[in-house]
Amino acid sequence: MKKESIFSILSSALTILLGGVAGLLSLLGGYAVSLFLKRDEADYPMEAFRREKASPTVGQLVSKYGEPDDVIMVNATLGNEATGVILVYSAQKFFIINGNKVKNDEISSVTFNNTATPYVAGEYQIVVNTTLRDLPYLYMNAGPDASYAKDIMASIEKYLPQTR
Predict the structure, then answer these.
(1) Which residues 6+ apart lie within 8 Å of 47 measured at CB?
(2) Where are the alpha helices (DSSP H) in 19-136?
């Protein structure tokens, strides 16, 4: 149930219970709160952008590209989304990273980065550098553990050609 509906029901119930001036004020207050909570999508363009650019699920990617040879878990909390795993197709020589198909020979390097600042304890990111003009970097949050990020980096590199 939407918040506007809950406030409308509550203000109507208070009107019936209290009656008179207090009930009328309650009804007007409930209406004011519902107007305040009503959100116009034009006021929140990033939410509309996120819904529009929603990341595909692993199931959608598997139905599109077939069963992967390996799955590298980058972020367990996002395990069913493209931003949480790397799908490896070693026979076809490509990866699916953040929902993007990247061929093995298009990857120039793999590293990890600590995003922490003096004010925020950030996560480690896996950084995949590519030779693609429109997608030079791919970032994936790997959590707060440096050794885990290093293991993910090694897992990616074992599928890359050794002559890079």
Answers:
(1) 41
(2) 20-37, 45-52, 58-65
Question: What tokens does 105 get?
Answer: 């020979």
Residue 7, both tokens: 């406030």
- Starting at the earlier edge strand, list the strands of the sheet with 100-103: 70-73, 85-89, 94-97, 100-103
pLDDT tens for each residue of 46-73 = 455 445 556 788 999 999 999 999 999 9
Residue ranges for the chain with pLDDT beneath 50: 46, 49-50
SS3 of 140, please? strand
CA 95 to CA 112: how far, in whole Å? 17
Whole-angstrom distance, CA of residue 20 vs CA of residue 103: 72
